[in-house]
User: Which sequence fits this backbone?
């Protein structure tokens, strides 16, 4: 394979444009701009050309040209990632082609009897949810960006979200993939099988690989029966330890009907109330911590409500819950979830923040929070920790906002130093420094610092085997 091309010549760019046709490329600066900035503004990129193929065959033709000429390819879905994994030319060069999945947006098939659907990579997550719902079924992947993120990006980052507790990460929801490899060959494994022991489960290589091994063009996904009943509660408590005890009790009593268990501190709710219009505090009195708990069941609504009532009664008796409210309508349920989903946007509007996406065993979460707060407050007096997230699966977004008396630029200069403190602690407690957002460009050095050397060698061997020319998303995940 040739070395990566420093700048594709005009003829090669014209050849790439010809593959996708007039509607399938963008090259004007104004058209490229929205695709070259990471959502938080941490990364700004460059590219001479964005391609928007409309079929796996077009992707294949693009990859063959890029492979032959040593042109780097950066896959992009909805560009909602938080680690810079979909931004080309971050180092300032203009050699990397941006390959968008946006025109690969068909729902190819829904097999209701097999509880599967096959969709193309550019389908918006919320539209996939709606398509399943229209057939009386349920696709459980759900996250704050579901109105704009694409399933190809969800697959490439192994996205998590609020339903992981019951249904698992994206990895657990994918039965088959169609992937265009760096040499242009198409790996077609779009089968809706739950059992298949014919050798290596190759699709798993591409889930969570962040576009470094190939370009996902379609997927066969698991579907589930739609819940007949849902019961949602907003609960106030004094500490994360009480929340962990509440979680344990809820799992014992509700089993897999417990589908969400989200932890939030008071400061996060205050930020949402201040910066997200139309939100309001569900409770009269402020408390230090809150849990958003949800049950979903195939049983009728009366039985599900009774189950939640029994759970909350037990927890009130034990002093685990100080106050709470149960949603009595779908509108009220939506309002409660809006508080949770609005935290990231609210914190963005509340000043500069340094963010972490960690996971630890659920039992270790109180210790992590106590020790992490001590570490960051000792380094930056007045810092404002805003930890929130999916306590039920041990994943917390340990975000810290700038002190009131520190300017944003000075605070953001501490990003790497605070990352090192928080990430090291998470790993020491048996956890991970990247739970659901991926490595991208942001955490490459941390992966090298904290990952097991044997794991790193295996990852490099896989990369070399599938992408010997190094054209797929160079500099992301692995250097």
Assistant:
């Amino acid at each position: 394979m040739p070395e990566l091309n420093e700048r594709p010549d005009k003829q090669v760019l014209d050849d790439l444009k010809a593959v996708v046709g007039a509607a399938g490329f963008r090259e004007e600066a104004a058209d490229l701009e929205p695709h070259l900035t990471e959502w938080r503004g941490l990364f700004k990129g460059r590219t001479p050309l964005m391609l928007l193929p409309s079929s796996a065959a077009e992707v294949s033709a693009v990859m063959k040209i890029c492979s032959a000429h040593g042109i780097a390819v950066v896959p992009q879905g909805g560009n909602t990632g938080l680690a810079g994994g979909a931004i080309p030319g971050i180092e300032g060069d203009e050699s990397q082609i941006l390959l968008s999945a946006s025109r690969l947006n068909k729902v190819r098939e829904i097999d209701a009897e097999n509880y599967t659907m096959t969709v193309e990579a550019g389908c918006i997550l919320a539209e996939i949810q709606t398509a399943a719902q229209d057939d009386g079924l349920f696709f459980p992947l759900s996250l704050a960006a579901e109105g704009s993120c694409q399933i190809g990006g969800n697959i490439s980052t192994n996205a998590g979200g609020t339903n992981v507790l019951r249904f698992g990460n994206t990895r657990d929801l994918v039965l088959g993939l169609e992937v265009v490899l760096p040499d242009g060959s198409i790996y077609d494994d779009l089968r809706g099988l739950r059992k298949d022991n014919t050798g290596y489960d190759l699709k798993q290589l591409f889930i969570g690989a962040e576009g470094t091994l190939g370009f996902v063009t379609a997927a066969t996904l698991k579907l589930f029966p739609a819940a007949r009943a849902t019961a949602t509660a907003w609960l106030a408590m004094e500490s994360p330890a009480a929340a962990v005890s509440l979680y344990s009790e809820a799992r014992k009593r509700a089993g897999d009907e417990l589908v969400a268990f989200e932890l939030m501190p008071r400061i996060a709710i205050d930020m949402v109330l201040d910066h997200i219009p139309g939100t309001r505090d569900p409770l009269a009195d402020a408390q230090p911590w809150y849990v958003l708990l949800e049950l979903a069941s195939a049983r009728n609504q009366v039985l599900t409500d009774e189950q939640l009532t029994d759970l909350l009664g037990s927890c009130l008796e034990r002093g685990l819950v100080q106050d709470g409210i149960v949603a009595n309508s779908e509108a009220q349920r939506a309002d409660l979830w809006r508080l949770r989903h609005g935290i990231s946007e609210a914190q963005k509007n509340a000043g500069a923040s340094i963010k972490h996406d960690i996971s630890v065993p659920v039992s270790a979460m109180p210790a992590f929070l106590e020790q992490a707060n001590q570490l960051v407050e000792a380094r930056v007096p007045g810092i404002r920790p805003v930890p929130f997230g999916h306590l039920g699966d041990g994943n917390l977004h340990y975000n810290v906002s700038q002190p009131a008396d520190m300017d944003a630029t000075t605070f953001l200069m501490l990003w790497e130093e605070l990352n090192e403190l928080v990430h090291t602690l998470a790993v020491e407690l048996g956890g991970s420094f990247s739970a659901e957002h991926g490595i991208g460009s942001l955490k490459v050095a941390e992966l090298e610092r904290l990952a097991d050397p044997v794991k790193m060698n295996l990852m490099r061997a896989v990369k070399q085997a599938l992408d010997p020319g190094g054209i797929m998303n160079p500099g992301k995940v692995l250097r």
Summary: The two ends are 18 Å apart (CA to CA). The longest strand covers residues 229-237. The mean pLDDT is 94. Residues 301-317 form the longest helix (17 residues).
